[in-house]
Each structure stands twice: as structure tokens, then as C-alpha cells.
Amino acid sequence: MAVGTARKASVRGYSGWLVPLAVFAVAATISGVLLLYYLGPRPHSFVEERAAPTANTARVSLSVGATNFSIPANYIRYRSARKGGALEQVALFALLPDFSGYTDANAQRFLTNAP
Questions:
Q1: Is 75 helix (H, G, I), strand (E, B) or coil?
Q2: Residues with Cβ < 8 Å from 104, sequence gap 6 or more?
Q3: 26 phi and psi, to 5 degrees?
Q4: Average pLDDT over residues 83-105
Q5: What's the pLDDT at 13?
Q6: Rounded-to-5 percentages of helix, strand, coil across the chain
Q7: What single DSSP character describes residue 83?
């Protein structure tokens, strides 16, 4: 009888909430990873170039494809495009309706989307 008692004492029961807690933790982790993947910022958004307006009106010579352009620097949105040369694309910005370029006097108008 002493042997049977020793075996019963070695059996240990675990709480019933550990398995559901583990399932919840795994489901929450997978959900968090999926939400971050679909809704989180992409790595390129951390390193992409930001708009850098300038009031400089010096002309920049550049080409897009086979077409050559000479554009005032205050119309070119990104600093890297103001170096000129051959580019795949060029982002421009101007105020409507008169298509005026960026100046220090109208800097506030470039920061908003107001009419």
C-alpha cells in the first residue's frame, strides 16, 4: 500500500485556465502581427524623401526620358531633383490658378489644402 500512495502523490493537476490563456495569447499575437502588417507603416515610408520647398528661382536643367526641361527650383518639390540631370520623374508644385512657385511670402498657402 505504501507504493500506491506514493504514485497518487506524484500525480499533479494543473489549473484549467492555462490552456485557454495560451490559446488567447497565441490568437492575440497572430492578430497583432496581421494588423501591423496590413495597417502599419511600410519601411519605405521611413526613408522616403520629404518635400523640401525652396524660394530659390535659379533654373535647373533636367531631362525626363528624351525631353529636356529648364525649371525654376522653386517649382521642384524634392531636393534631390534640384540637382538636375536625367530623371525618371519629377514632382512639381505650384499655386493655382496663377501657377506661381514657392516663395517665403506664400509658404503658408503651400502647407494647407484650403481653396
A1: helix
A2: 55
A3: -65, -45
A4: 92
A5: 72
A6: 40, 15, 40
A7: G
CB 91 within 8 A of CB 77: yes
Burial label for 75, CB within 10 Å (0-12, 13-18, 19+), is: buried
DSSP class of 76? B
CA 94 to CA 74: how far, in whole Å?
9
- State how far the Cα of 23 lies from the Cα of 19, in Å rounded to an integer: 6
How far is 92 from 81, CA to CA, in rounded Å?
A: 10
The tens digit of pLDDT for each residue in 35-81 reads: 998 888 777 666 778 888 999 999 999 999 999 999 999 999 999 99
Domain boundaries, the chain: 15-48, 50-111
* Cell digits of residue 109: 498657402
- What grid cell was written down for 22? 495560451
Residue with cell 490563456: 21
Asked whether the beta carbons of 77 and 51 are under 8 A apart, the reply is yes
